[in-house]
Amino acid sequence: MELRIGVVGLGAIGRDHVQRLSRRITGCKVAAVAEVNEKVGREIAGQYDAKFYADGEELINSPEVQAVMVTTWDPAHAQYVMASIKANKPVFCEKPLATEVEACEEIIRAEQELGRRVVQVGFMRRYDPGYQELKKTIREGKIGQPMIVHACHRNMSHAATMTSEMSIKNSGVHEIDVLRWLLEDEYVSGQVVLPRQSRISAKEGLQDPQIMMLRTQKGICIDVEISQSSGYGYDIQCEVVGDLGTARLPDPPSVATKTNCSHTTAIMPDWQNRFIEAYNIELQDWVDHARNGLEPAGASAWDGYIACLTAHVLGQCRAEGGMAKEIKLPQRPGFYC
Ligand code: NAP
Predict the structure, then answer these.
(1) pLDDT at position 202, please?
(2) Is the distance from CB of 164 to CB of 203 less than 8 angstroms?
(3) How far is the CA of 324 from the centre of ligand 1 (A)?
């Protein structure tokens, strides 16, 4: 039987995911969509033979929807995740789980009261074959004990609404999640260092680039450059330095051309293509679990909470002048182990 999914929010990734669920992922059907822009919502509903809802909560509570996907803008995530938990339906929420720590706490409380895990957060890098291979290399001890991580997250360009806070809470949050997953470690302190401002991204309220510095329980030191306007492409890098060697995240394969006295390989312009395989694997895995009545296997509400809390401390650090701050993580409840 096909899993009947309702998608709330039809922006860039909402539309991508509707198409992916309809054309690529097996065992599911987009049964309903909700979108604040009614014209867009009705158009997409028509294209995919789905029912249109003007109200996301109405969609979630509809008996024809068995599982929910939340792809609205960040501030609306928590509301729809809470409604899904109340309706006892599996919910895939695009990152971040919520914009505020308190909202994440409310979600993990509600999920524990429900008594089963229904929330998966869209940290798709955990499904990326390159990150998977990197994790395997570290686990097998090939580079010895990890000591240092150098990473960078460069967006080609940013939306007009981008702020210094969003740069960490919306972009940096991917790094925060994937690095603790990769290293199987937890953060103990963090800091934000502000280099010279880029002239390209210069605008009121946006300090760009920023460098997030994190230290883990095992003593691993991490630096992550977050840039919103590389101008040359979407570039994700990660190098782990161990005491026996180093391991680097592979770049996506690209044909190298040599012409006119130059040697070039293409760089992806955007996240849609850079992580296309990760999104495909992630959504198939989510559908397979939900369809078989299993708890989700991807990033949990707890992981979403830790990412939000870490981003929050880093934001405080920047606001207070950049001194390193302790990251006090609460004890992980057995429910999330
Ligand atoms: P987007 O293009 O700006 O779309 C956001 C969508 O949410 C739009 O359809 C917007 O409607 C709708 N929306 C706005 N306010 C709403 C409300 N109060 N209630 C319901 N819907 C509302 O953004 P996007 O790039 O698709 O991003 C959507 C989410 O996915 C974000 O949370 C983002 O962080 C996440 N994301 C994740 C990844 C990833 O790699 N995992 C990549 C991209 C995005 P209007 O168009 O009418 O404003």
Answers:
(1) 84
(2) no
(3) 32
Tokens of 69: 């996907």
pLDDT of amino acid 116:
97
**Which contacts (CB < 8 Å, 24+ apart) does range 244-253 have?**
244/141, 244/142, 244/143, 244/144, 244/145, 245/142, 245/143, 245/144, 246/143, 247/134, 247/137, 247/138, 247/142, 247/143, 248/134, 249/130, 249/131, 249/134, 250/130, 250/133, 252/130
Give 69-120 pLDDT, tens digit per residue. Answer: 999 999 999 999 999 999 999 999 999 999 999 999 999 999 999 999 999 9
Most informative mutation of 36, 73, 120, 273 for ligand 1 (most atoms within 8 A of CB)? 73
Of the candidates 278, 313, 276, the residue with the CA atom closest to the CA atom of residue 299? 278
| SS3 of residue 9 by DSSP | coil
Where residue 115 falls (left for φ over 0; alpha for ψ -120 to 50; beta otherwise) is: left
For ligand 1, the distance from its centroid to the CA atom of residue 42, given in whole angstroms, is: 17
Instruction: Kindly give the distance from the C-alpha atom of residue 144 to the centroid of ligand 1, in angstroms, as a whole number.
Output: 41
> Quick check: 97 and 304 in contact, CB under 8 A?
yes
Three-state DSSP class for residue 230: coil
Half-sphere exposure of residue 36: CA atoms within 13 angstroms, side-chain side: 7
- Tens-place pLDDT, residues 20-43: 999 999 999 999 999 999 999 999
Q: Reduced to 3 DSSP states, what percent helix, strand and coil does the chain have, rounded to the nearest 5? A: 40, 25, 35
Cα radius of gyration (the chain) = 20
